[in-house]
Amino acid sequence: xxxxxxxxxxxxxxxxxxxxxxxxxxxxxxxxxxxxxxxxxxxxxxxxxxxxxxxxxxxxxxxxxxxxxxxxxxxxxxxxxxxxxxxxxxxxxxxxxxxxxxxxxxxxxxxxxxxxxxxxxxxxxxxxxxxxxxxxxxxxxxxxxxxxxxxxxxxxxxxxxxxxxxx
Length: 167
Fold this sequence. Notes:
5-stranded antiparallel sheet; 2 helices
């Protein structure tokens, strides 16, 4: 296993649509293991393949509720309710923003054995599933923020951080 470099905002790969995975290979097994190691090393709860430079429909998640999961070709098939809360992203280090997400989602995907599974999530798991699946379609949470991005390391008495996208 290896820790991979995380692509950060401004890298073109983060805005591209990922390709479906057709079969499990040794290389894909290694990618899944590397993604978990990279996510844990960076204190994340989710990571999508494009964030490590691979345009494949693959995400890994560990929100501490169940066992860690890797989802191949995940697709949200049902979403309802609403939750509003802060989100961050390993590809936008040091920034958070308030985002509205469904409070309950059902996702169909393939597991590591290429068997179809259904994952149902509420709260943080629902938020994480939506966030990571968005990455597979080139969508970043900053596109959905309600009231701008804010620095996570800024003292409370300082003014709000104004995030400007690079050209």
